[in-house]
Amino acid sequence: MRRYLIVDDNREFAENLAEILRDAGDEVAIAENGQEALELAHGSRFDALLTDMRMPLMGGAELVHEIRRVDPEAAAMVITAHVADDAIEAARREGLLAVLPKPVAVSRLLDLLAVARRDGLVAVVEDDPRMSDNLCEALRGRGFAAVTAASVLETERLGPVKPFCALVDLRVPGGTDGEAMRRLREKFPGLPMIVVTGIPEVPALPHEGYFTKPFDTAELLSAVERLHRHRGEAVARP
User: Fold this and answer.
1) Phi, psi (degrees; rounded to nearest 5) at 115
2) Which domains are assigned to the chain?
């Protein structure tokens, strides 16, 4: 059984969605605004947050940011009628599993929640937008959310997130080869990294895998799965 937090000032929508999830055997809490949601998050651990974007008192992007401070391991998803909202990009920087439009496709939502993972955030450092998008979509298919950076400087600007691993291209703008890895290691000490690159050069910095483009996506995802499994085993170990 999993536990979800739905945040939406449209109580009828939230109740209908909660009923669907409860019928599937899960527990659901509802909050009508960000402040209520934060109070619930302080008292309970949720597997995933499902939030609207435009709400009184606190918007969805700000809520995801604040929830990350309380529980950085919870998966987060936006369900909104305003998919073009400029604030969605701010929410994405906190690591969203998905942005779904209203009215929500229930089957798609249930599929995403079925695989959504706590402590499932991956940092993706890649300057090719198409490659970055493809990696993020492949990760979402396995229940992993992603935060992205396209340069060395952007690795410095990652928010108060808690990735369990990183996929890093050796050569991105703003520094010498491998500089993004060094910056990530400073920002997130001990963060396991998988190199995904077109450069036939193995980095001197510690890494947990090395994939040369073009690579087998299934093998890369298996490497991410192993790191996530080992992370969970280490946490569970007394």
Assistant:
1) -110, -5
2) 3-115 (3.40.50.2300), 121-236 (3.40.50.2300)
